[in-house]
Each structure stands twice: as C-alpha cells, then as structure tokens.
UniProtKB/TrEMBL annotation:
This is Uncharacterized protein. It comes from the Bacteria. It comes from Streptomyces nigrescens.
Length: 236
C-alpha cells in the first residue's frame, strides 16, 4: 500500500472578528469611532475592511438591498438583509480579511423599526443574522448619549437642512410616523435605545455599551480599544 501523504494544516478563513459599531442617535460619534478602530486594527498588522455607512448602497453583496429599497417601497425585506449580510461575511472570509469594522450595519434595528417591524419580529431577525454570520465572532459596540443632546449636536454640525431631512425621513416611515420635531424624535430614540438593549442582550454576541456623555472622541476611542483588546486577537 502506498504511503499516505502527510496533510498540511490549513489556516482557517478570516475574518476572525466582526466589530459592529452602532449608535442610539445621530451625533454620538459612531462614524468617527469606526474610522479610529479601523486604523487601530490595521496598525496591529490585521487586514481590515472598514464598511462605512454609505457602503450599503455600493457593496456588491448588498446590491439586492439597494435595489429593493429603491424599488418603490422604501423598505427591505428581512430575508434580503440576512442574505446580503451572509454574503458579505462569507466573501470577506474567503478573501482572508481578519477584521470587519462596520458602521451602522448590524444590528439593523433602526431600519427595522422604521419599516414597521415589532419586537418579536426583530428578535427573530437577529437570531437568523447571528446564524448567518457564523463562524465569525461578533462584537457590537453600541455608542449612546441622551438623544436630545446628540440630535442638537448633529444639527449644529450638519445644519438646518439636515434637520429637515432627518425629521421628514422619520415622519414618512410606518414605524416612526409619530416624529414631527426634535423632541418627538428624541422620545422615539429613547424608546428605540431601550428596545435595542433588550434585543442585543438576547444575542450570542459580545456587546460593549459606551455612554459618551462625558467622553470626547479621543477618550471614547481609547476606552473602546481597551475593551476590545481583551476580546479581539490583536498584537498591540
């Protein structure tokens, strides 16, 4: 009998970790934090994909999401979101990317609420997403502040045109039609924050909640890096 050739261990496909940054309101600094975390992860020698918020309109894996949203209903079926997320993670692993840093992607709660889905439906959705992204490890970094303060910060930064756009967008969606001004938007976001905490607590993911009320961008980034260093395999 011919000898059996020895097998060479293969390196598992990446990514080793998906870091999903989400915020409870515009103006909490999640995009700034995302950029900082992506730069930090690259500095450790990891290969990193930084999925920016606007990328959902251009990434190939999310083309069905963009097309469905633009199709007239201005909403996306949960199964379309799940399939796109699975495709994105699968393609990233096949490409050998070590870490994904996503901005306002997972857990999709604000979009699902706006489109009229109730808590049990969103909970089912998150269970399916958790299965779809396996075997990638997931850490959700949930950045929060008092919504009234954060919204005012966003308006000061973006201007009154942004305020009008944001309020119009919420008022036009089935799940957020009660919003008509900044106070009602803040009330909605407080409700959504409590909902998100309940939903994330039921997932298998590691969740890091960061209250930025007393933190600037640099201190926020350092705080998150300190915590992530304990759960993400990084060199420095």
């Amino acid at each position: 009998m011919a000898p059996t050739a020895p097998t060479t261990p293969t390196r598992p496909e990446g990514p080793t970790h998906l870091i999903a940054v989400a915020g409870n309101s515009p103006g909490v600094g999640k995009s700034t934090l995302c950029r900082s975390l992506a730069d930090w992860m690259r500095s450790t020698g990891a290969t990193v994909d930084h999925f920016q918020e606007a990328d959902i309109l251009t990434r190939p894996a999310f083309r069905p999401v963009a097309e469905e949203f633009a199709g007239g209903a201005h909403s996306v079926r949960p199964e379309t979101l799940i399939a796109a997320t699975r495709a994105y993670v699968t393609e990233s692993r096949a490409a050998g990317i070590d870490v994904l840093v996503t901005d306002a992607l997972i857990p999709f709660v604000p979009s699902l609420v706006a489109w009229g889905h109730d808590e049990p439906a969103i909970a089912r959705f998150l269970r399916e997403v958790a299965t779809a992204v396996e075997p990638a490890r997931v850490t959700v970094v949930y950045v929060e502040d008092d919504p009234a303060t954060a919204l005012r910060r966003a308006v000061d930064r973006e201007g009154p045109d942004w305020e009008n756009w944001y309020l119009t967008k919420l008022a036009a969606s089935p799940g957020t039609r009660s919003v008509h001004d900044l106070p009602s938007a803040a009330a909605h976001l407080r409700h959504e924050t409590a909902l998100t905490h309940r939903l994330l607590a039921a997932t298998p993911w590691h969740v890091l909640t960061v209250n930025v009320a007393d933190l600037d961008a640099l201190r926020t980034a350092q705080h998150v890096r300190d915590h992530l260093a304990a759960v993400v395999d990084v060199k420095g």
